[in-house]
Write a structure and sequence with these properties.
Jelly Rolls, four-stranded antiparallel beta sheet, 198 residues
């Protein structure tokens, strides 16, 4: 694994737990490096998710296709974010979502087996994954509450504020599907927001 990749993952882990040099070495060697081109399907609905991936570079999205064939973006993931279907990964059951890369993407990947071994060898990592899960649940809960109470404009402005990189790197129709609105309505919101900022 290249030094820059090691450094990124090391910095991320150190933000959650303090590991000895030996523990950190065990953690770093557990990950498998993968380089995948844009538009690669990492997971298809109906498959069992076999990875938890830390993104070194690039962008991916998780999405759900409803009975009418409409796509709903569940989340985006950029550098230093994770992407997976945790429920499918942890329980080894078919996923209801799909995951694809939107850019050429570099990943550091854990399989269920390597993660289980890692947690046995370095128990401190349980804390990191627990804290990550708590953060993720808070984000999901807040998004759910906003979808029930905020206007589409409020949701769009908050998205702009929190995820400026996503806005620049992701096609508008994916952002519309994340916000739960049509692409046409998103265009109207964008024009209104620009006009209000003038």
């Amino acid at each position: 694994m290249a030094e820059v990749m090691v450094t990124e993952l090391r910095k991320y882990i150190s933000g959650f737990v303090a590991l000895t040099d030996q523990e950190m070495e065990l953690v770093l060697t557990a990950f498998e490096y993968r380089q995948v081109p844009r538009r690669t399907q990492l997971l298809r609905a109906g498959e069992v998710c076999s990875f938890e991936a830390f993104i070194l570079s690039g962008c991916a999205r998780e999405y759900y296709v409803d009975d009418k064939g409409s796509e709903h973006t569940v989340e985006f993931a950029l550098e230093r974010w994770w992407i997976s279907d945790i429920y499918s990964f942890e329980n080894q059951v078919p996923s209801r979502v799909s995951i694809e890369t939107l850019e050429d993407t570099e990943l550091l990947v854990l399989s269920p087996e390597t993660k289980a071994s890692l947690l046995e060898e370095v128990p401190k990592m349980e804390r990191m994954f627990r804290l990550m899960m708590q953060r993720h649940l808070n984000v999901v809960k807040n998004r759910l509450l906003r979808n029930m109470s905020d206007t589409a404009m409020d949701r769009y402005l908050l998205f702009l504020e929190r995820y400026p990189d996503v806005i620049r790197r992701v096609p508008q129709y994916y952002i519309a599907s994340y916000l739960g609105i049509s692409q046409e309505f998103l265009s109207k919101l964008r024009r209104r927001a620009v006009k209000a900022g003038e």
